[in-house]
Amino acid sequence: MERKTKWGVIYCPKEGSARTHKRWKKICAYMQEQGIQFDFVQSEGAGSVERLAGMLTENGYATIVIVGGDAALNHALNGIMHAQRPGGRLPVLGVVPNGFGNDFAKYWKLDADDYKRTVDSLMRRRTRKIDVGTADVETAGGRETYYFLNGLNVGLTASVVNVRRKARGLRGWLNAAYLYAVARVLLHRMDFKMDFRLNAGRHNQRFVAFCAGSSRSYGLTPSAVPYNGQLDITAVAYPQIKQLFVGLWLLFTGRFLRCRDIRIWRTQHVSFSNPEHAPVSLDGRVLRTKVESMEIGIQPECLEFMIP
Q: Tens digit of pLDDT per residue, the chain (308 long)?
C-alpha cells in the first residue's frame, strides 16, 4: 500500500555538471519540506534509467517522477512500457525538467528554472491522459519496440537534436546547433533516400529530415498535440542553399511550417522502409543501431501524465 502513495523518483544527472547536482539537492530538500513521501534512485547513465523505471513499475509504485531531460524521460517511458505491471495498470508519469532541451516539459509550460513551481504543480496531482508513440524497429539484430512522447526523427534533425550533447558545457547551445546544422549540410549532402507509406500513399524520394510527432518535437511538428490520437508527419526535401539558412532559422524560432520544401500529413500509422544510413532519434535519444525498417504508430491516451 505504501508504494501506491509514495512517489518513485529517478534523478538523472547531466554528465559532468556540478550545477545539476546542486540543483537536485535543492529539489530533494524542497520535496521533503513539502511533506512529499518519496523514494529516489540516481541513474548511472542513460541505460540505467530504463532499468530503474521498469524496476519501480514492477515494484508497484503508482507514481514515477523523472528529474531530468527529454532523453531521460524517454528511457523511463520505455522502462515503464516494457515492465510487468501489477494489475496491468501503468503508473502516473511526471517530470521535473533538469536536462538538455526539456522540450516535452516546455509543451506543458513546466519551467526548468522554477523547480518549486513544478513540484507544487505535481503535488496537486492534476493529470492528463496522453498518447504514446510506438516504433517497431527492425535491425540486423532483430525487432524491438520503442516508445516516444515527443517525436521520432530520421535524418539531419536526429543529429541536430543531439548536438547539444556534443556542445555540452557551452552556453547558448541554440546557436551552436544552428551553425552545426548549416555546416553539416554544406559540407556533406545531408539528404537520405526514404521510402514510407501513409494514408494509402507511398513516398519514395530523398529527404533531409523526417519527423513523426506526437507533440511539437523540437519545432518539426508545431501543430501536434499529445492527446488527439494522431501523429503529425513532416518531411523536408533538400533545399536550395538560401532556403537552407531560412529553413533552419524558422525551425529554431518555432515557425517551421512557413518553410518551403516541406510536406506535412496527419495519420495514425507510417510504414517506413530503408532509411539508408540516416540516424534515428526518439525524444532526443539517438538509436545506436542501423535501422532497416520501422512501423510507426500511436497508442491514444494510454498514459497519465502529471501536468500544471
A: 456 689 999 999 865 555 667 889 999 999 999 999 999 999 987 779 999 999 999 999 999 999 999 999 999 999 999 999 888 889 999 999 987 678 999 999 998 889 999 999 999 999 999 999 999 999 988 999 999 999 999 987 676 655 555 544 444 455 555 555 555 555 455 678 899 999 989 999 888 889 999 998 887 898 999 999 999 999 987 655 445 555 555 555 555 555 556 889 999 999 998 777 788 999 988 888 889 999 999 999 999 999 99
Q: What is the DSSP letter of 35?
A: T
Cell of 73: 524521460
Shared fold status for 2-125 and 133-301: no
- Largest CA-CA distance found in the chain, in angstroms, rounded: 61
Interatomic CA distance for residues 219 and 234, integer angstroms:
10
Which positions ≥6 away from 25 have C-beta within 8 Å?
Answer: none
CA distances from 236 to 157, 208, 245, 259, 292 (A): 10, 5, 14, 9, 20
Radius of gyration from C-alpha coordinates of the chain: 19
How far apart (Å, rounded) are the C-alpha atoms in residues 37 and 35? 6
CATH fold, domain 2-125, is: Rossmann fold (3.40.50)
Q: Could you tell me which CATH number the domain at 133-301 has?
A: 2.60.200.40
Residue-range domain boundaries for the chain: 2-125, 133-301
Task: Look up residue 188 and give its three cell numbers.
Answer: 556533406
